[in-house]
Amino acid sequence: MRRISVILSIGILFSCQTKEKKIPDSPLGWEIFEVPVKASLRGLSPVTDEIAWATGSGGTWLKTTDGGLTWDHGVIAGLDTVDFRSIHAFDAVKALAVSAGQPAVIYKTIDGGETWELKHQEENDAFLDGISFSNPDQGFVVGDPIDGKWMILQTSNQGDSWYPISNAPIASEGEAGFAASATSLVVNNNNLWLGSGGMEANLHFSPDLGETWKKWKSPIMHGESSKGIFSVAVIGKGEVFLVGGDYIEMEDTTSNAASFSSEKEEWGIPKSAPKGYRSGVVYFPRFHWLVAVGPTGSDFSNDGGLTWENFSSEGFHAVKLGHTEEAIWASGSNGKIAKLKIP
After folding, report:
1. pLDDT tier at 293 (50, 70, 90 boundaries)?
2. Phi-psi region of 112 (alpha: psi -120 to 50; beta: other; left: phi over 0)
3. What is the per-residue pLDDT for 298?
4. Is the distance from CB of 197 to CB of 227 less than 8 angstroms?
């Protein structure tokens, strides 16, 4: 009996070991899809490995439900002069689209993009930068500061109605947000993270969905309207990673990335930085990867952002992880949409 037990134990151990998947060393690049539009696509919201939405210039929206093989597309509410740089998709039929610039509007579709209904419109001085949801019902939209305070709207009914948070953070003179990838604001559970740029590059943080706020000055380059924090990715346990730089001097790698721990209130500076200005960054918990994109290429880190490697010359504006955390998608100029290729 003992010999049989030993043999069974060895067999079970071998079986478990063969099922273990080795974490790949790096991505293989991007699978780029053929899409029926040529718009600049900064709004991106993947749901699963098969379902993804995107929005952009000319009022463009598009959606795939078969992993990028085919695409539905159209113009949001006939607004062919409006740049919709933000989108949040709930599933294959429901999504919210947010404009950048004027008119400052939020539209919703509940029929897969066939029709879009206006849910909110701001005044003429508003500029909306991005959208993020903490759960399927509660979401936030951030806009550039007005009268010294950040504009942050919230919803508790999947975007059917919007209202300002009660305690918006104070903005410094010359501080602003970026809508380059619509990820300067991210929400994780009850935590709101907001990165800024311009004259100052600050990290604003709320642990209670906007009731109270802290602010830290970041080491990201700043001092001009083209410089600052462009994207924030939540790693976990109070840690985030920031990318940005200068969208005019795109090759500059100086102070274009940093990590931050809210528990320790400490900044971390990479030993090697992403290869230039980066407008988007995302955390891939499956492999503990960070992936950053910008117009000049794509980089990844497998050590929490300490070191970075350029793995593709393909440039994008935005990069996102699907709700089901199966796949990473990216979008960019001239109708470019892609999915990360994994070994």
Report:
1. very high
2. left
3. 98
4. yes
Q: SS3 helix, strand, coil % of the chain, rounded to 5?
A: 5, 45, 50
Q: Nearest to residue 177, comparing CAs of 147, 145, 149, 217?
A: 145
pLDDT of residue 21: 63
Question: 290, exposed or middle or buried, with CB in 10 Å at 0-12, 13-18, 19+?
Answer: buried
Query: Is the pTM of the predicted complex or chain greater than 0.85?
Result: yes
β-partners of residue 329 are: 320, 339
31-59 pLDDT per residue, tens: 999 999 999 999 999 999 999 999 999 99
Task: Indicate the residue type of 272.
Answer: S
Is 208 buried (19+), middle (13-18) or exposed (0-12) by CB count in 10 A? exposed
Q: Give domain limits for the chain.
A: 35-341
The CATH homologous superfamily to which domain 35-341 belongs is YVTN repeat-like/Quinoprotein amine dehydrogenase (2.130.10.10)
What are the E-state strand segments in 49-190?
52-56, 60-64, 72-75, 83-89, 95-100, 105-109, 117-121, 128-133, 139-146, 149-155, 163-164, 175-176, 185-188
pLDDT above 70: residue 330: yes
AA letter at 172: S
Q: In sequence order, which residues have a C-beta less than 8 Å from that of residue 260 and are 6 or more positions away?
A: 203, 216, 218, 239, 240, 241, 242, 266, 267, 268
Distance between CA atoms of 305 and 291, rounded to whole angstroms? 9
Q: What is the DSSP-derived secondary structure letter of residue 18?
A: H
pLDDT tens per residue, range 87-119: 999 999 999 999 999 999 999 999 999 999 999
At 114-133, the pLDDT tens digits run: 999 999 999 999 999 999 99
162-170, Cβ contacts within 8 angstroms, sequence gap of 24 or more = 162/106, 162/119, 162/120, 165/140, 165/209, 165/210, 166/210, 166/211, 167/210, 167/211, 167/212, 167/213, 168/210, 169/194, 169/204, 169/206, 169/213, 169/215, 170/215
